[in-house]
Amino acid sequence: MRKLMILLLILFIVVITGCSHKAGTLTPEEKKVTVQQGGQLKYGSLNEPNTLNPLISNLLATAEVGKLVFSGLVVTGDKGEWVPDLAVDVPTTVNGGVAADGRTVTYRLRQGVTWHDGTPFTAADVKFTWQYIMNQKVNVVSRDGYDRISSIETPDKYTVVVKFREYYAPYLTLFGTILPKHKLENVGDLNKDPFNRAPIGTGPFKFREWQVAEALIFEANPAYYRGKPVLDSIVYKIVPEQSLLLTQLKTGELDVVSNIAFSNLEQVKTIDGIRTVIEPTMVWEHMDFNLDNVLFQDLRVRQAIAAAIDRQAIVANVLKGVAVPAYGDQSPLSWAYNPMQQPPTRDVNIARELLAQAGWTPGPDGIMTKENKKLAFALAIPNGNRQREQTAQKIVEQLKEVGIAVEVRPVDTQLFFSDILKNRQFEAAIYAWVAGVDPDNLNLWHSRKIPGRGNDGQNYSGWRNPEIDKLTELGTKTVDVTARKDIYFRIQDIIREDCPVVPLYFRGNIDAVKVTVANYQTNPTPAGNLWNAWQWGFTAAK
User: Which among 392, 469, 472 is positioned nearest to 426, based on CA atoms?
Assistant: First the structure.
């Protein structure tokens, strides 16, 4: 999660949130469109991949183009749900793919799938991918989860049996990229092999050419198991400046640009022939309290602050409606989100009543006082993000109405994450997390994940709650999905009750797409929007 957070700060320093129509849902008009076969689509990106092997890079650009070349056993769909890819189905306890104790997961593989060079894909490739990831000489991004696998058996060419040392709840997040054994098993230095810049996969497009600092070109894979892609080719153009991206949109040189800066939204809306696609994501902005601070050790003060903050006003006035208010740590796109939870609304009277119960009374200047001390605190934020700065100022205004004085303190972004948060040198802080595809947030909430004293976690608030400790541990050990969902529902309730943080809103993503591009669907996960590029095409001329 930390790597994803840092990556997001580097690549998404602008705040972009909201939705135009439901992710992945085609309008009646779109369903009637006739799509022509063939054509070349130009996709604009601010960033160039550093490799085309997703297992050894955490760059979004690499993840994006990786979706063109490679396949996984299971992948996430347009609503964040798990769907089969190289596997025939998603293994669960219901269909017998997951053992009762959760420690054995069986994947049944598709038959007839081939690598781009024509070699058949088999279970041996899946086992090799695990061995590749666990090879200490390979600079993979993460071995989390894979290191809990004790063995992988391949009883036949199309069956993979994964055996874990202990139950690993987010088992479906593993094997999102499968590598070809026949191309890599005899390679000396896997980090430097030419494969990483000119790979073959089982995905819908074949790598053709890399024009450094300019573009990467991919051509349709006619043997793709879902059928040949609609497009003949995709050009992933590297355009390092947002202004140049917009210029090329205007001149028609680009067909799709993802991750448009929030500040450019209105400008993009004025470009003829371009539609904006604004979809929710799983990135949530929130305000943390440092619970070691005496002021915030009083639950009534935390609850008063939460009651005084108007999320809807922030979304409407700061983000111009392009956001989704957050009421917990799970995105509305997650299967663990509780749709029945009551959204908290701003209530100034309740906030003032809570402060009065805590012994705070209005001073001459309207700021609450207690024992000759004002109710005031500093709010740290990483600098360089205009929307976050405006959000912080809006919170200052809202809390002042109930007699709370807040001073916003912008901090250098690198210093903020490497020191201020890590060493918990703040009173309150606003920043963002990337919610994972799996709802496990033990690293954020468990008391042993409070940084310091030998602990390496991200419970920066310093939240200590015995029930949360038990629930977060239980959530990672519970095999039954329904029972596990109940656990995360309860965690969401406790977050609202105990207020270690104040969830503010879930960000979104702004894309600019030519009106002639058909079947463009975003994906709420951090893997980019090329996930269904095999379906993209251009509308037929009328």
Answer: 392
